[in-house]
Amino acid sequence: GLRIHEQPTLHPASRDILRRNTTHTVEPGVYTDKFGIRLEDVVVVQDKGVKNLFEKYKNLKP
Questions:
Q1: Domain ranges of the chain
Q2: 3-state DSSP call for residue 57?
């Protein structure tokens, strides 16, 4: 991509279609007055759902 955020942008009213073999980020965030956090995943669209490319890193320990 060329920009930080590109189409498709999914939300309850969107009509965008995620095509097979494309990658996307899933970026849920929580923000308060003094703190914010965003935990991002990269997924690839497959025939029957998505594969999380970052899943193996979620259980790393220091």
A1: 1-62
A2: helix
**3 state DSSP class of 8:** coil
| 9-20 pLDDT tens trace | 888 999 999 999
**56 by DSSP, 3-state: which?**
helix
- What is the dihedral angle through the alpha carbons of 9, 11, 15, 18, rounded to the nearest 10 degrees? 50
59 three-state secondary structure: coil
DSSP annotation string for 13-43: T----PPTT-EEEE--EEE-SS-EEE--EEE
Tokens of 46: 């497959």
Q: Write out pLDDT tens, residues 33-59.
A: 999 998 889 999 999 999 999 887 777
Distance CA 25, CA 28 (A): 10
